[in-house]
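Model it.
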Amino acid sequence: MKKVLRKFQYAAVLALAFGFYSLNIKAEDYELDDFEVETDKNDESGDFEYETNELNDFEIEALDNIKAAGYPLLIVKDYKKTANIGETLEIKYEIWPEFKNEKIETNVYNSDGVKVATSSHSFYNTSKYPFDYSVTWDTTGYASGDYKVVSKMSFYSLYRWNEAPNEIIAYITLNNGFTPNTTTETSTNEQTEKNNVSSDFSITTSGIYCASTSPSIVAGMVTEKSNLSDDIEYRWIACEEKNPDNWFEVSPWTKNNEWLNWTPEESGNYVIVGQARVVGNADSQVEASFGTPYYKHIKGICQMPYEGEGGGYLIGFESLENPGQSYKYEMLILDCTLLAEGKDAWTYTTGKCGVAEGNALWTVWQPQYGYYWTLFRLYDASGSMIDEVCYGFANIY
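Modeled.
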């Protein structure tokens, strides 16, 4: 018998990483140690709460097939930095925790792909509010060139450490510490053309103001110019954090419009770069960046063991909004065993359900032994599907 729970259940609310928060908790800075990995240290807020149940080989193999419903989110605040050899660089991050016990590992690689510095730190999280974290790198003794700073989160769940699926990359350029003389002879006509732009084309930026991340990403680049008569043009580029080498143009150069209003086609974690320059002079270009998660319409999903009558799984998902309670929510479950046998594999569905209040739908389902996919679908008032998320899980205990 299908059970649809139309109100939030307290335990499930605690398990969901829904929403955006404004509270910032400053973490300590941790030094990058050359050529050695730090041992994990307990956070000052408490000891790790490891589960110590012993597992047999079959259970360990079974757990390898289970994926977590959510992962800790890591966002790098400055994806590209330039410094002189001997300076100490600070790389800043924002961490959105998902589990109590989590850790971050950061490695620096040179242009040949050789790891030249590394650091790791563990956290004990008492809440799911995002917090700031940073590492510093003393560049004394390193060669000039391009470096990559690669960071990855891990979390303790199901009696073991698990790696989050995405790596976060920052790009570092180290210079020798002097500015080369790039002066070249310029013809009279070329110099006259440059002078017609402005004799003083200095422009600076203090960063990007992100006004909204839903339903669109709205952000503005804050700039100042030394010559008030100059016109400024702006351009926006972005990449998804899972594909840091795949940059694409969001908005082309546009005169005197510092605002971005962008609705990504796909949900994901984006790094967005704003570029500004005096019209007609590329030498004046400055840029700033920020990172943000973006979800089209589904805000989050949850799938967890249900300890009530009958057992099974408590499954639910939440939308960012539900205007006039007009949205319909649907959950479907695919049995991978039946699919492999060529049989009708859709073994469970809630049907399209509205909710009288709030913007989430819950259900309880009792699976048989096997492997499954849960499909979460959201429909607008016209009945059109506006978002869907798929999640794989195993019931093999």
